[in-house]
Design goal:
This is S1 motif domain-containing protein. The protein has 4 helices and 18 strands. The chain is an alpha+beta fold and 286 residues long. It folds into 4 domains: 9-63, Beta Barrel (OB fold (Dihydrolipoamide Acetyltransferase, E2P)); 75-136, OB fold (Dihydrolipoamide Acetyltransferase, E2P) (Beta Barrel); 140-212, OB fold (Dihydrolipoamide Acetyltransferase, E2P), CATH 2.40.50; 217-283, Arc Repressor Mutant, subunit A. The protein has a 5-stranded mixed beta barrel. A 5-stranded antiparallel sheet has the order 8-7-6-9-10, with no helix packed on it. Strands 11-12-13-15-14 form a 5-stranded mixed barrel. The termini are far apart.
Length: 286
């Protein structure tokens, strides 16, 4: 008879009850089914299908809540807690959260998932039989993906980041598209497990896509125009910058290129909100 192992689903017989639940058995080993892990009424000598895990004392325990994540199977799970000395704890659907070891996370803490982020994981045990979550490999992610087509070009896309590299981030979209976000197509590096929104800027022959997290041109220009307008408001409606200001001065004050500054300033002028005069820009009076 096979030994009972955490991370697996087995059918056991109810052996005896206890003040805090029932003891189940396979004829050789007993395991506690705690009251908190019971979802249906059971009677003595019933056969019960349960998921095995370790309780907070490290003892083998059972749950009638069968998670989709098991040893050999994968699913998305939510991060519920971060402990930098250990890793990320995830909720797999039972009353005990499972640890994804820091060894399986990025070396930079700022790129670790945060509570509410999602990871695609399976379960594994270490040499001491302790149960851990294990993020999916690239091959596993590819096995659940589907190819995009040229018709998907320029579409908005939402997905979850699952892999981080020096040059960019990999995501899988809600449709199942595999996407790559080059470092030039983002304003900051997203976290592992973070949900991101962008648009498809290229569809490759293999059906994978390149994704930009930057806004479309008119959206970016609108954000830049808002930044300039808010700065002018803080100065009473005038600023010592105009479309002939130096690129270095513009970058230092607004953190944008001169080309972007001129586009945004042109938008404000076209809307009749500002005008330029002798090196300054002013609000137009109503």
């Amino acid at each position: 008879m096979n030994a009972l192992e955490p991370g697996t689903v087995v059918t056991l017989r109810v052996d005896r009850d206890a003040p805090f639940g029932y003891f189940l058995t396979n004829g050789e080993e007993d395991v506690l089914l705690h009251t908190n892990e019971i979802i249906d009424e059971i009677d003595p000598d019933d056969d019960v299908t349960v998921f095995l895990f370790q309780d907070h004392q490290g003892r083998l325990a059972a749950s009638m809540k069968i998670p989709t994540v098991q040893i050999g199977s994968y699913d998305w799970v939510e991060v519920v807690e971060i402990k930098h000395e250990l890793g990320a704890f995830v909720n797999i659907g039972i009353n005990k959260d499972i640890l994804v070891s820091k060894d399986d996370l990025h070396e930079v803490w700022d790129l670790w998932p945060e509570p509410g982020d999602k990871l695609y994981v399976t379960l594994r045990t270490d040499k001491n039989g302790r149960l851990f979550g294990k993020p999916a490999t690239e091959d596993v992610i590819r096995s659940i993906s589907k190819p995009a087509t040229r018709k998907d070009f320029n579409k908005n896309i939402t997905g979850t980041v699952y892999r981080l590299l020096m040059l960019g981030s990999f995501m899988i979209s809600e449709e199942g598209f595999l996407g790559f976000i080059h470092e030039s197509q983002r304003t900051r590096e997203p976290r592992m497990g973070e949900k991101v929104q962008g648009r498809i800027i290229d569809v490759k022959e293999d059906g994978t896509v390149n994704v930009s997290l930057l806004g479309r041109g008119h959206e970016i220009m609108g954000d830049d125009a808002d930044k300039i307008f808010q700065y002018m408001e803080s100065r009473g409606g005038a600023m010592p910058f105009w479309d002939k200001s130096s690129p270095d001065d513009i970058s230092a004050r607004f953190d944008m290129s001169k080309a972007a500054f001129k586009r945004a300033l042109g938008k404000l002028m076209k809307e009749g909100k500002v005008y330029q005069e002798e090196g300054w820009t002013y609000f137009k009076k109503e």
